[in-house]
Amino acid sequence: MLDLTGKNALVTGIANNRSIAWGIAQQLHKAGANLGVTFLPDDKGRFEKKVQEVVEPLKPSIFVPCDVQNEAQVEATFQAVADSWGKLDILIHCLAFADKSGLTGDFSAVSREAFTQSLEISTFSLANMAKYAKPLMTDGGSIVTLTYLGGVKVIPNYNLMGVAKAGLEMSVRYLASELGPNNIRVNAISAGPIRTLASSAVGGILDMIHHVEEIAPLRRTVTQLEVGNAAAFLCSDLASGITGQILYVDAGYEVMGM
C-alpha cells in the first residue's frame, strides 16, 4: 500500500552509511521514489566522495553540494530540482550541528557565535529550504525533519542542540500552518538515540543507548531503517491527513516516567 512511485524526493544530511538520512533514503527508494541527494562540500572533496559511494546503489538523479549557511548553494540546489524534475514532492531535512562547546559545561556559558551557528544550521535551514521547496511542490508534498527528545526535556550533554531542536519543532508547526493550504504537509520524527556521526559528538551517547534499552517498553533502541519506514509513511498518501506532528520513533521511551 505504501507506494511512492513517480514521486521526486530530495534527501539532505547523508554523511555515511550510519546516517539516519541514509536509512530514510533507502526506504524512500524501496517505495519507488526518484531520489536527489545533497552533500556538504569541503575543500578536499572528501565528503562528496564518501556520500557518492554510499548512495551509488540508489542511483540518485540529482547529486549536488548544499551548505545551508551558503544561500547561493541552497538556491542552486532547488534550481537543480527545477531544471531536472520540474517539481518536488518530498523534502527530507536531516541537518543539525552544534559546536562541541555547546554540548558540554554550563548552558549559560554558550558563546554567541556557537548559538547563532547552531540555530542557523539546525533550525533556520528548515524554514529556508521550505521557502524554496514551496513553489516546486505544485501537486502538494511532504516535508519531514528529524528531532530528538532533548528538544522538550533536559538531556545531559545535549545543551545547545536541545534549544535548536525545540525551535525546529515549533518551526514544523508554523510551517504546517503556512503550507497546509498548498496541500504541503510538514512533520518531524523524534528518533531514539542511534549511533551516528552526529550523535558521536554527544558525550555519553553509548550510556544513553544502553539506558533506552533498559527502560523503553520494547527494551531496545531503534534502527536507521525503522526511522526510514516512518519517514516513508509520512511522505505517502497513507499519511495524507497528518501534518504539524512530532512522531516518536524511539521504542516507546518517550512515554516512560521513570
UniProtKB/TrEMBL annotation:
Substrate binds at A98. Its EC number is 1.3.1.9. Pfam families: adh_short_C2 (PF13561). Pathway: Lipid metabolism; fatty acid biosynthesis. Gene3D superfamilies: Enoyl acyl carrier protein reductase (1.10.8.400), NAD(P)-binding Rossmann-like Domain (3.40.50.720). One of its GO terms (biological process) is fatty acid biosynthetic process. NAD(+) binds at G13, S19, I20, D67, V68, L95, K165, I194, R195, T196, L197, A198. Keywords: Fatty acid biosynthesis, Fatty acid metabolism, Lipid biosynthesis, Lipid metabolism, NAD, Oxidoreductase. The active site is at Y148 (proton acceptor), Y158 (proton acceptor). It comes from the Bacteria. It catalyses: a 2,3-saturated acyl-[ACP] + NAD(+) = a (2E)-enoyl-[ACP] + NADH + H(+). One of its GO terms (molecular function) is NADP binding. Belongs to the short-chain dehydrogenases/reductases (SDR) family. FabI subfamily. Homotetramer. NCBIfam families: PRK07370.1. This is Enoyl-[acyl-carrier-protein] reductase [NADH]. The lineage of its organism: Bacteria, Bacillati, Cyanobacteriota, Cyanophyceae, Oscillatoriophycideae.
